Amino acid sequence: SLSLSVQNGSDRAADVEGDAEETPLVGKACELPAVVASTEEKCVLEETLHVARSGHGTVTRVHDNPSYGSNSADFSTDLSTRGLRLQLVRGVVTSAVFLLSFIDHLMVCTGVLYHSGLECITHLRARGLSLTPGGIAHQGQGPRAKVVILGGSFSGLRAQRELSRRFDVTVVDIKDYFEYTPGVLRLFTQPENLGNLVSPLPTARSNLVVGEATSVTPTHLKVRLCQRGRPASLIDGACSQKLPSSEDDTVMLPYDYLLLGCGAGYPCAPIKPTSSESTLTCRQDTWTAAATTLRTAADVMVVGGGLVGVELAGEIAEAYPSKRTTVVTSGGALCSALPPRVGVAVRKWLAKHGVNVRFHSPVELVEASKGLVRLCSGETITSSVVYDCRGNGTSKAASLLDASSLDSRGNVIVDETLQVIRPLLYSSGSGIECPRTNGLASGGGQIFAMGDAMVMPSCTDLKLGHTAELNADVVAENVHHLESENEPISAALESEVPMRRHAASLGKYPDAAVGAPIAPRVFCVSLGETYGILVFNGIVIEGLLPAIV
Ligand SMILES: Cc1cc2nc3c(=O)[nH]c(=O)nc-3n(C[C@H](O)[C@H](O)[C@H](O)COP(=O)(O)OP(=O)(O)OC[C@H]3O[C@@H](n4cnc5c(N)ncnc54)[C@H](O)[C@@H]3O)c2cc1C
């Protein structure tokens, strides 16, 4: 910023300063003030204005003032001093901008490293390895308490890792492998990549039962086995009790703590595996078939302009640039749950890659098998293939619990400690003996829910893999605390047992996981193989780097 001082003899008039206003020079014509009299004075002022213009600065414009006659005005400028001041100001501003941008990048990098670290651990854990010991070891004298974890994915595997040293842990899943859901959209175009996105479920420190949970009693989880030929030792390890021969493919797993990490359904097949894909071979067949359907389709419609819809459209547009691809969305923006800049960038990328986006088109019905979509307006649109990406469906735990534990969308309601609220369970009717109880009022085991399977009314977190893992951290911590209250221990071990806490002071989400009232928002939107948008809280960066991340 430059200012001109106006001199009237020796008197620097305060009036002039009072009348002065800051006028941006960039892109504006700047008239010399009428008070400028002589040619020499004009030259000085012209020069000053030139400096200000070239420096994108502002200059103080002096209003006409009748008290200063045109001949009495006397301007002088000390260009060298002002130039120095300008440089100093520039230097300070540049340093400040550099510092801010450095902090900004540092935060992004920290977020990226944190997220990558979590995912790395997930992969290691899925392979039965671990970077750190899995929580507190068993210290009691009696048998270890039984923890049954339903779901071997982000939340379930995190809990398995944290609890398996101390508890008798059994993981139940419909399949014997972990599949990395955030990466599966590329399998629509590159099904041969499945091997890079999966790993076997762990069996080293916990039991694995491959089967579909069908109901929950206050003391047992009922599971229909998916792989009858599985080694009996794995199932026996879970201390299951076989039911009578009419149900010989069913086992009852007793629990002291039941952790529901079974996720939610997704309307677009085959994004979530089903019980008929319990082995990797079956799953590979499914993805190969899905890729063939897409490859041979004349045109494609993706319903839903959220994270999954736009990523799928991106994969298709990049792999099949000549295929007519349309995204149908109800609102006027894409990825509306994310910062607006993300939606704008996604829109630009899709437009550049020839994807047509149909905004303001709320959908009433999708019949993917018929390639048909009916809009709320009554209009029906068709396409060779339709992918329904309108978000998560009902919690997979909905059919296991009483309706009083569910919200209107079928999600399991939990309190801040992630315990299921009002778990009125179906009676087993099996006459099976109860396992050791926790001395809880209900007389049964304790039930928690985490990840996509549950809803915590006071929480607005996006349903993400990383959030599911944070949920599991809190659940594991609370299971440890509850067990510390119940575990019979010798006097010698008393001092070594971790701090005993009353149930009323159990850890709450997210504070117990991240030490703050809100969890960090870290996620990446991938559009094809070379473009991504990374979001860390309010910070958004786009381009190749996020795509690599
Ligand atoms: C296409 C897509 C892309 C995504 N991209 C990202 C992303 O980039 N980043 C991100 O952080 N998040 C992403 N998400 C969200 C993320 O995948 C989920 O939030 C996360 O998987 C939830 O983990 P979870 O452990 O709660 O449940 P899930 O991952 O859904 O796992 C549930 C497990 O339970 C098993 N199961 C379910 N029912 C039963 C039953 N009755 N009996 C036995 N086993 C059962 C299932 O087989 C499964 O293994 C994406 C989701 C989708 C659908």
Automatic annotation (TrEMBL):
The keyword Ribosomal protein does not apply. Residues 1-20 are annotated as: Disordered. One of its GO terms (molecular function) is electron-transferring-flavoprotein dehydrogenase activity. Keywords: FAD, Flavoprotein, Oxidoreductase. GO terms for cellular component: cytoplasm. The keyword Oxidoreductase applies. Residues 146-430 form the FAD/NAD(P)-binding domain. Residues 1-10 have a biased composition (Polar residues). Pfam families: Pyr_redox_2. It comes from the Eukaryota. Belongs to the FAD-dependent oxidoreductase family. This is FAD/NAD(P)-binding domain-containing protein.
